Amino acid sequence: MRGGELLGRAGLALLLMAAGAGARPRPAAAGGQPRSSVVLVACDSLDGRLTFFPGNQTVDLPSINFMKRYGTLFLNAYTNSPICCPSRAAMWSGLFTHLTESWNNFKGLDPGYITWMDLMEKHGYHTQKFGKLDYTSGHHSVSNRVEAWTRDVHFLLRQEGRPMVNLTGDRKRVRVMEADWRNTDKAVNWIKEEAVNLTQPFVLYLGLNLPHPYPSPYAGENFGSSTFLTSPYWLEKVNFEAIKIPKWPSLSEMHPVDYYSSYTKNCTGEFTKEEVRNIRAFYYAMCAETDAMLGEIISALGDTGLLRKTVVIFTADHGELAMEHRQFYKMSMYEGSSHVPLLVMGPSVKEQQEIPNVVSLVDIYPTMLDIARIPIPQNLSGYSLIPLLCEQTESEVSPRGPRPSWVLSEFHGCNVNSSMYMLRTGKWKYIAYSDGFSVLPQLFDLTADPDELTNVAIKFPVIVHSLDKILRSVVNYPKVSSSVHKYNKQQFISWKQSLGQNYSSVIANLRWHQDWLKEQKKYENAIDKWL
C-alpha cells in the first residue's frame, strides 16, 4: 500500500485470505504451540471514544474498524496519568504513577529500568522499537518542567498559544506528519525484510506522535503545541455534520482546578462555534492520518503472512479534549483526556468482541508477559488482558485473584494546580484532589451524564464516601500530594540556583513570557513567597 492509501473492503478481504484469518492458531496456552509475535502501535493523544458509537460517526477510521472486525475492542480503557511521559512510564513498567514517581513530563523511569520488552528479549524474543518512546526522565522543555514545579505558586499565567487550526497542502497531500511516516516506513520495511526471516518470535513497537497537536512557534520558548494541522486529504475523512459542539459552563461556575487549566491553556477567551468545530474537525482528521499508519503495519503483516501468527495491539498514551470543558490537550480526568483506545487482534483473540470491563495501560506489561509465557511478577499494578481477550476464567490465569472492578488514574504535572486522582468503577467516575479537603471532589454518573457536565458529589455523599475509601486503600493520596509538593519545591530551588545571575531573564522568557513580562516583579515575588 502506498503511504496512507486506506485499506478498502476488497483489500481487507484479500489481506485476510493471504493471512489465513479464520484458521487462527491457539494463543499463549502453554505447551506445543509456538509463542505469538506481538506488534504494539502506540500513538499520542487519541480519544478512545472515537473507536465506538457515537464517537466513531465523526471520522472514517478503517484500520481501527478492521481490528474491531477481526479482534477485540475495550470500551473502557484508561490512561494511568493523562500526560505523555508519566502515562508511558506506567505502560512500560506496569506500575501506577505514584509507585514510579513519574510526577511530570520531566520525571519518568530511570534509563536502566527493566521493561516488559527487556524481559521478552531475555526470554528469547527478537525486539525492535521505532518512533516515540518518552518513558524515561530528563526530556521535554524547560518550560514544561518549571510550569509543573510552580503550579502551587499563587499566580495565573497563560502557558500555551491559543488553540488554532492550520490547513496545509492539497488533496494529494497524504503525508502531513512526515516524522511519523518515516518511522512507519521503517517498521514496515523491518517487517518485510527482517521479521519475515526470523526463526524466533518478535515484538515490534511503533510510537507515533500523531494526533498530538503541533508546535505553535509564536508562543515563546520551546513553544506550546496548540496547532491542529492537517491537509484537505484527511479533512475529507471527517463527517462535519456529526461533530458535537461541547457545552461549556460559565467561567464562574467552573471547578477551580478546571478554571486554572483552562486559563493556563489559553482557553478562557471568546471562541466562536465555528472555531470550536474546526479545532475538533482538524483533530479528527489528524486521527484519520494516524489510523492510516496503523493500516500500513497491518498490511505489511498481511503481505508477509505474519498476521495470523501475530498479536496486534493499538492504543494511545492519553486522549485529547479538543475544546471539551473549555480546554484542549490532556492533563484532565474528563473522558476526552483520560479514555484511551485499546484494540487487540491475533491468534485466539475473540473476533468482534466488545469488552465493557474497565482496564488501563498498566495492564499492557502483564499482558505482554502472558503472551510470551513469562511468569508475571506479583508486584505489578496491572493485570493480564488475556483472560478477557480469550474468555478464560481468571482462576486459570492469575494467582493474584480476579482483576479489580476499578481503574486508577492520577496527575501531578503542569496546567493543573493540584494533584488529582481518578477512580473509575461501574457507572461512576470519582475525582479527588490534593489532600482530600482543600479542593472539592467531583463525582460523575457516566451513564446519565456521559459529557460530565454535572458534578453530583454533594448529591451522593454515601457514594463519595465509599469510592474515597476504595481510593485510599489503593493510594494514600494526601501523602502522595504532599510528597509531590515537596519534590516541586526542591526541584525548583536547585534549578534556580543552577542559573545564578541568569535566573530572572530565563524564567521571564519561558512559555508564559507574554504575561510574565507585563508584571515581572509581581511574579518573582509570588515565587519568593512560595519558597
TrEMBL record:
Subcellular location: Lysosome; Secreted
Record-level Gene Ontology MF annotations: arylsulfatase activity; glucuronate-2-sulfatase activity; metal ion binding
Keyword line: Calcium, Glycoprotein, Hydrolase, Lysosome, Metal-binding, Secreted, Signal
EC main group: hydrolase
Domain Sulfatase N-terminal: 38-372
Pfam families the record matches: Sulfatase
Domain of life: Eukaryota
Catalytic activity: an aryl sulfate + H2O = a phenol + sulfate + H(+); Hydrolysis of the 2-sulfate groups of the 2-O-sulfo-D-glucuronate residues of chondroitin sulfate, heparin and heparitin sulfate
The keyword Calcium appears for this protein: yes
Gene Ontology cellular component terms for the protein in this record: extracellular region; lysosome
Family: Belongs to the sulfatase family.
Record's function text: Catalyzes the hydrolysis of pseudosubstrates such as p-nitrocatechol sulfate and p-nitrophenyl sulfate. Catalyzes the hydrolysis of the 2-sulfate groups of the 2-O-sulfo-D-glucuronate residues of chondroitin sulfate, heparin and heparitin sulfate. Acts selectively on 2-sulfoglucuronate and lacks activity against 2-sulfoiduronate.
Protein name: Arylsulfatase K
